[in-house]
Amino acid sequence: MKAPLVVLGATGGVGRGVVQAALDGGRPVIAVARQASELKVLKASFPHADLTTIAGSVSNDPAGAKLARALRKLGRPLAGVVAAVCGSAERGRLLDNPAEFLRRKLDEDLLPHLAAARHLLPLLAEHDRGGTYVLIGGPGSEHPWAGYGHRSIGAAALRMLARVLHDEARQLAVRVQLLAVDTPVCTEFNQRNACPEWPSALSVGQRALALIDHDADSEPPHAVVPYASRVAPPPQLPPRAARVPSGPASRLPAGAPAYPTTARPTPKSASTDACSQDPDSTADETAQRCLQDARALLKSLTSKNPKQEPTPR
After folding, report:
1. Predicted model pTM
2. Per residue in 102-123, pLDDT tens?
3. What is the chain's alpha carbon radius of gyration, rounded to the nearest angstrom?
């Protein structure tokens, strides 16, 4: 029987994707979240699965220690931990807010990861089982995200935290890795307004599970692993009947595409929160602004950056 996987932030958008990916793979899951009512709803979604729920938090050291005691009482050796922890989504320029604003956002987005690692990494090391601890990071860690500078700072700090934990956890025989998702994620909470380019929460969960199972196509154990879907197959040529007929009337100028193309429709709105549990906003003005922010982020990510880390194969 497989050892269970602990999912922190299990009722959030990304956390639900991790839970589903694990249960689909036949792995037992211990779901951790603050709200017992939301955990009850999550458990009802998988009535026949091996899903254990714990109402707990990793917001600080005392909370992390309490959660570790609750996990130890279960008496079940752990296979790994996936931390899909993220604070609330707020928009605003750093220059327009007091320093306390950034401090509060770091308390929400960064320090819970440290509290969780401090108390859960020793659990993974017990019984000489080792294990893997995966943190899931959000967008903006390498490029400033206009209007969400605090998220960029927190994501960049989380990247360095993962590198430090990766080195320090070696003496525990535990592997720590950050799955860096550099775009917003399509979740069940924002799918109505999500862009087609965003990865799904389920695909992020599957990628995290590949790291837990050490089954990432012989990928070396880097501290930071950029999220990437499998390499897309080459585009298929249209069937012969759909090809442009030859002849003087259909001759194309040099450099023109050989086959007709259709433009992908642009969504009218988008939500930029990858981890929040809040439902979609219906305000057109807010949605349009978020869509512009997401487009700006995607443009910066796809621009040539010689300093960017190579993606491990």
Report:
1. 0.74
2. 999 999 999 999 999 999 999 9
3. 22
